[in-house]
Fold each of these.
Amino acid sequence: MTVTKPAAAGTEPGPPRVVLEARHPGWQRLGSMVRKEFIEIRRDRRTLALIVAVPVILLVIFGYAANFQVQHIPAEFAGHDSPLLRSALGTNGDFAVRLGVAADQAAAESDIQHGRVGVAVVVGADGRPARVLIDGSNLLTAMTAERELAPLQGASAGAAPPVSVDVLYNPSFSSTTFMTQVALVLTALGVVRERERGTIEQLMITPVRKLELMLGKTIPYLVIGLCDLVIVLLVSWALFNVPVRGSIPLLFGEALLFLTATLGMGLLISTVARTQLQAMQMSVFVQLPQLLLSGLIFPLAAMPWGVRWISYLLPLTYFVSVARGVLLKGIGPADLWPETIGLAILAVTYVSLAALRFRKTLD
Amino acid sequence: MIEILADGVVKTFGRTRALDHVDLAVPSGALWGVVGADGAGKTTLFRCIAGLLRVDSGRVLPGRAGQARLGFAQQGFHLYPDLTVEENVGFIGSLYGLSRAAAAQSAGELLAFAALSDRRSSLAGELSGGMKQKLTLVCSLLHRPPVLLLDEPTTGVDPLSRLEFWDLVEHLRVGGSTVLLASAYFDEVERCDRVVYLAHGRVVATGTPSELRGGHASLEEAFLEMTP
Amino acid sequence: MSSAVVTAGLTRRFGRRTAVDHLDLDIAEGEVFGLVGPNGAGKTTLIRILCAILRPSAGSARVLGLDVAADAARVRPLIGYMSQAFSLYQALTVAENLRFYGTLYGGVPARREQDVCRLVGLTPDELTRKVAELPTGVRQRAALAAAVLHGPRLIFLDEPTSGVDPAGRRDFWALIRELSADGTTVIVTTHVMAEAERCDRVALMAEGRVLACGPPASLRAATGTIVAVVEADPWQRAYAELAARWPGTTLRGTTIRVSLPAGADPRSLLAESLSAVRVERIHATDPSFEDAFIWFIRQSHPVMA
C-alpha cells in the first residue's frame, strides 16, 4: 500500500496515500487485541470486581468462618503413643484426644474416613510424630487443625524427617477453583460477547488470523488467572499460614498448563454458545463436576469407576494433586510426571477442539 | 482488471435462497451501485464478497484472501461501545497492519473530515446514530483500501453529513479505489458508473443510471416499475 | 386550536454536554409536526422528555395540558411512541405483540385491535407471523399498530421509515396523514427531506436548539437565496471547482446545486468556476427543502461547510 497518486486538481487537499505497514503485522494484531481486551475489562467494573474480589472474599469467608466454631476436634494417635504429644495436644483446647492408640496409619485413615476422628497423629517407633492426618472434608475442622498443628513441624527438629501434614479430602484449596471458575467463565464470555454485540463481524473482515483471534481472546484471561493464583496464595499464606513448601516456579508452570486446558474449555464453550447467558450456563455446567469430581472434596479413591472416568477429563483433578503436592509436600517435578502429562494432554485436546470449531466466518 | 467479483454466487440459509446465481464484475477504479428492497440480498452479497460468509457455489473477489486490501463498512454498528473513538480507530488500524504513526495520521485526517475530531475521547457507545455510521466509515477507510464495500452507509444520516460522506468516498475514488455501494438514496445511486438492481436474491437489471432510468422521470420511478 | 405540546426554556444536560438547550416549542393538536436536524441535535432526547421517560434539567414541557415532570404517569397513557429501534418482540407473532402491548395499557377490545390492523394495512396472514420473519416494511407497520393501539391523542415517531424502501415509505406517510385526519397529533423525526416536506410544520434543530420552525414552504422562502442548478460534464470536476469557491454547494445525483443570493444571475456568477467543463444546463430555481436545511445548518456553523 505505498502508491501515491496526486489528488485531482480542484479537489480539496486530500490525505496523502502513503501508508506504512507495520513490521510484524501478526504480532501487532495480537498485541492490539490483548490490549483492547484489557481496556474493556478495566472499564467493565463488575467483571473487574469479579476477578479480584471473588476469590479473595470466598477465601477469607471460608478461612475466617472456620475460626470461631471448632473446638474439641476428636483426635487420636496411631502406631505408637507419645506422652509428650498427648499432653501438648491435650492442653490445646481445640482437640479432644482419645484414649487408646490406633493400630497404624491405615486404621487411622479409616477412622477419619468414617468420621470417628478429625485428626490422627501417626507416631513412629521413636516416639516422634511421623505423619499427621487431617480430615479435610469438614472445612472448619481442617483449617483449625492445620493451623494448630503447624508447630508440630517445628517440633521434629534436627535429624528427624519433617512431619508431613496431609490434609485429606482437601477443600481448603478450593480457593484455586474459584480462580479457575472466574477465568473459564470470562474466556467463554469474552468471545460470546463479541458475537452478541456484533463486533466479531468487524474483526472477521480484517486480515486477522484465526489463531490471533483465539490467542487474543485467551491471553488476557490467562494473565488474570495467574494473577488470581498469586493473590490467592498470598492471602492464604498471610491469613491462614498455608505453607508453600515446594517450588513456586513449578507451581506456576503447572498452573499455566492447567489454565491453558481450562481456557481451552472456555473457548470450546464459546464456539457453541450463542448468547452470553448460554455461555454462563454452560460454564457452570462444566464447573460443577470439577468441584465434585476432582478430588477436592471427595477423594478420588472413593468414587465408583462409572463416574471416576469423568474426573480424568477435568483439568482440576490434576491440578489439585499438583497444588497439594507442591504446597504441602514440597515434591519436585519428577514426582509430578503423571499430572503434568495429564494436564498437557488435556490442554492440547481442548484447545484443538476449540480451534477446529472456531471459524473466521459467520457460518 | 476486475477488483470486485461475484461469479454465479449462490447462498442458501436453511431453505431460503438468499442469493441465486448473482453475477457482478466491477473494474478497477469504478463506482458501482446496488439497489434493492430490504431482504433482496444486498447485505448477504456484500458479506460473501468480503469473505464473511461462505458461498455455496460460485466465486468471489476479494474474498477471504483479499481482506487486507478491502474496506467494508457494514450496516449497523459493529465497533466497541466501551472503547473511545480514538481507541476504536487505533485498534482497527492495527488489525490492518498500520504502524502506530500511520494509523494516527490516517485517523486524524479521516476524523477531521467526518467532523468527529472533537469526540475523540467519547465512548463510541455514547455517540448518536449518525455519528456511529460516520465512525464505521472512518474505520473502514483507515488503511486506504483499494477496494471498498459500503452497505447503506448513509441510512439514518442527515443530508449535510451525507454530503461529507460522499466527499470522503470521492477522495478514495480519485486515488484509484474501486467502490461498491449499496444505498437506499437514489441520488447517490445516480452518481454511480453502473447500477445493479437486486430483488429476491437475483440480479434483475444492470446498467448505467441513465440506461436504467429509460424514459422515466427519475431513477426511483424506473425502479418502482421494475419491482417484481 | 389548543396546543398538544408546549415547551418553555426546556433544557436537558448529560454531564457537561447540553443535549437540549432552552427550547421553546408550540405544537398544535392534530398537526403533523416534523423534527429534522443533524445527528446529535437533540431530537431523540427531546422526544424522550416529551414522552415523560426522561426528566428535564431545566425549563418545562406540557403535553396535552399536563406537565411531563409532575404528571408523568398521567401523560403516558395518552401518548404513543414508536422508537427508532424495533420495540416489538422478535420471537413473538405480530398478534401476540399487539395483545401484549394492549394489556400494558389496561386491555384493548378486540374490535379496536382489528380496526388498527386494518388501518395500518396488516393482513391476517401477517398477524400470525413472527416479527423476526417479516420484512422491514411490515415490521414498521406492526410497530405503528402497537403504538396507536390504545388510542393515543399524540404519537411520536422516531425515524419510522428508516430502512424502508420508497414504496413502503409512501404507504407509511399515507397512514400518518390518515391518523392526523382523525385528530391525532403526530410528531415525527426524519432524515428524508421529502418526508419532512409532507409535514404541516417542521422544526429544524441543531445542537439542542431550534434554528428555524414553520411550514416547509416558508422555511424554503426564509433563506433568501436561490439555487443555481448546474448540469455539467464531467460533473465531478464541476462539483469540485464550484465547491472550492462557493460554500453553498451541494450535490444531488449528478446535478450540482449552488446557493446564491436572491436575484443573482447564475450564469455570470459561476462562469469562471465552470470554465474547465462543458455546461449542459444551468438555471435558477427556488431552494428545495433540503437546500434550505443545508443552508440553515451551514449558517449556524460556517466552519462545517
Amino acid sequence: MLEIKMTYVLFVGFALFFIGAYGFLTRRNMITMLMSIELMLNAVNINFIAFNKYLFTDKADGIFFTIFIITIAAAEAAVAIAIIINIYRKFRSIDAEDANTLKW
Amino acid sequence: MILVFGVLTVTSRKIFRSAIYLLFSLINVAALYFYLNYEFIAAVQIVVYVGGIVVLILFSLFLTHQVDVNLPSPPLSRMFFALLACLFGFGFAFSLLIAHHFPANENALTDLSVSYIGKQMLNYGNGGFVLPFEVVSILLLAAMVGCIAIAVKTKKNA
C-alpha cells in the first residue's frame, strides 16, 4: 500500500522531469527554456519530498534539500532573466540561435 | 493536473499562455505537498515560485515580447527526436523504479513543525544544516549583486 502510493508520487516527479526536458530540447526561446528548467527543478523537489515522506520519516534531510533547491532556483531565475534582458537589448531578440557572437 | 499543465506549458504556442500554465502547474505541485502533509514546504513553494519566479518571468515577457505573437513551431525532426529521447528516458527510469524494491519503513515519525525546521537549519551539531545555509546565503548575495551588475545600463554604450 505504502509502496504503491510512493510509486504514484514518484511517477508524477519523473513525468514532470521529462516534460521539462522535452520543453528544453524543443523550445528555442530563452524564457520558455527557463520555464522548462523550473519544471525540472520542481520534479526534483517532488522526488526529495516523496522519499522523505515514505522512506525516511525519522529524518528531515529531504525537506532541507527542497528548501535549498527552491532558494537556488530563485537565484538562478533572477540571474537568467537579467542575462536575457541584456541579450534582448543587444540583439533585439531572445531566440537562442540569434545570440551567436561567441560562436567562432 | 500537474502533468496536464506541464505539457501545456511546454507545447503552448502563445508564450503568455505558456507562462500562465506554468503558474497553474506550480500551484498544483504545492497542492501535492499539502496532500503529503508538508505544509511548510507548500507555503514556501507558493511564496517563492508562484509569487516570485512566475511574476519575474511575466515581467521579463512584457519587457521583451509582443504578447499576442505566436511562437514559431519547432521543426518536426527536432520535435520527434526530443520526444523519442524523453519517452525512452522516462520508460527506462520508471521501469527501474518498478523493479526496485524499497525497504519498508519502520522509523518513528518526527514532528516536522516550523520550529523544528528552524532549529535544525541553524544547528551546527549533529544533523544540523548551518553550513549549507550559510553557503546559500552567500550564493543569494552573489546572485543579487551579479544581477544588478549585469542589468545596469552603462551610459557609455547606451
Amino acid sequence: MNFQIKNPKLVTFVACLIPLLWLCFDIAFDNLGSNPIQALHIRLGDWSLRFLCITLAITPIQTMTKWRGMTDYRQMFGLYAFFYATLHLLTYLVVDNNLMWSIIGTDIIESPYIWFGVIAYLIVFSLAITSPKWAMKRMGKSWKKLHRLVYIGTMAAIIHYFWQLKGNLAEPLLYLLIIFFLLGFRVLAWLTSRQLNKMMIPKGHE
Amino acid sequence: MIIKTYKDIPSSEITDKKVFNERRTLIKAMLVTAVGATMPSAWANNAKPNAWDLAKSDLSNTALTPTPIELVKNYTNYYEFTLNKEDSTKLAQNFIVDPWSLEISGEVENAGTYHLEDILRQQTLEERIYRFRCVEAWSMVVPWVGFSLANLLKMAKPLSTAHFVKFTTIQQPETMPNQRNNVMLEWPYVEGLRIDEAMHPLTMLAVGMYGDALPKQNGSPLRLVVPWKYGFKSVKAIVKIELLKHPPLTTWNKSAPTEYGFYANVNPAVSHPRWSQNSERQLGSGFFTSRRQTELFNGYGEEVAELYRDMDLRHFF
C-alpha cells in the first residue's frame, strides 16, 4: 500500500501541539511531581527552546539536502517557539505569581537569570510579529538582519535556563552544543561562499 | 532530544493521606510495625517500645500545617545520589544505614565513637514542626523527630577553644553514584556552624519525620536541621561531628564562594547572585496561589537574631 501524507503541513501543525496536550494530560492526572509549577515552567521552556533549535536547523538542512520549500515550516516552527514561550511567560505571571505585581517586580529586578528570559522573549516576540510574508516584503533587507537575532535570542534562553540551576547543567549544555553547531554551520557556509565569490572574480581585477 | 520521564515510585511506597492523618493519633500503635519496617534492625530490636513516644516541644510551630509527606519524600537534594530532586527517592534505596556510628572529636573532653542506638537511648525524642527553606526558593513545613544538638554536644563537653562545629556526611561510594564518579562537588559533603549556632535550642539532630523513621532520601539515619538557614546547611547522614578552633571549609561555599556563604541565613533582602530570595514556592500550594513572602531568618528572627547582632548580613551571607 502506498501510504502518503496528503497534507504534511497540517500534520506538522497538529503534531507540534502534542507537547501541549501531553502537558494537559499530566496536569489532569497530577503527574508533575512535588513542585508542579516548576515542572510546568521547565516543560514549556524546554519546548520553546527545542522549537528554536528545530527552526535554526532548517536552513542548514536545506543547504545540505537541497530540499527546497521548507521556509514555510521554518516559519511554523518559529511561531511554535513563540507560542510555547508565551505559555511559559503566562505560567510565570499567572499560575506562579497570581499577577501579584509587587512580588513579580522584585523577582525580576533581583534575578539576573530572568533578565535573560526577558531578552529572549522580546526577541522571539519581535520575530513572531514580523513573520508574515507581507512584513518580510515591506521590511526588505532589514528583515534578514532582524531575524538573525534569533541566535542571540536562543543564546539568551539558554543562559536563562542554566543560570537558575544549582546542580544539573547537562541539559542546558546540550542546547548550547546544538546552537554552537548550528551557528558554526552558518559561519562556515558564509566563509565558503565568500571564498567562492573571490575565486569568481577574474584575475587581474583584484 | 531529551524528554524527562519521571518513574513513579510504586504506590505501596507512598503513604496514603488517610494513613498519614491516622498516624498522628495512632502513633503508639503504629510504632511496632513502622520501626520494624524501616529502622535499622539492631536499633529496632534494642529500642524500647516507648522510644517513639514523642515529647511535645515548645520550639515546634504547631500552628503550621505540615506539607503532605509524599511531596517531602519525593523532592530532595541529595547530590551524592543524583542532581535531580525527584530521582533520589529511588536511588537512595540501596544506601546502607545499619549499623551506624557517629564520631565526636576535636576540641572536646569526651571524644569518642558511638553507636547511633546508644546515643538515642540517652535522648528524649521530640516532634518539632519547622519551616524548611531551600536556597533554590522553594519551601516546606516538616514535622521532624529528634533532639537539640546542644544536648549531645553538652555530653561531649566542648572545650573553651571550640568555636566551630564541622559536620561530615558518610562516604559510601558503593551506594552513592556521584561519590563514585566524582560528580559536581567534593565528597564527602561537609557543613559547619558557629558554636553558638550549634548550641541554639532550635538546632536539632533529626532521626525521623512525620512520626516515623527518616526515609533514606531525607537523610536517614541522622541529619541536622537548622530551620533559620537555607536547606543545604542541614547536612544528611552524618558520621562525624568535630569541634574546631577555626571555621571549616564547607562544601557549597568551597564550590561557589560568591553564591553560597558559610552563614546561609534565610534572608529575603540578600539575593543569590543569580536569583531573588524575596519569595518562595511552598510545596503543596496549588496553581494560581502566589508565592510566599520569605521571612528574615525564615521566621525565627525572635529566637536567633541576637546571634547576629552587629553583623552585616549582606557581607556575612
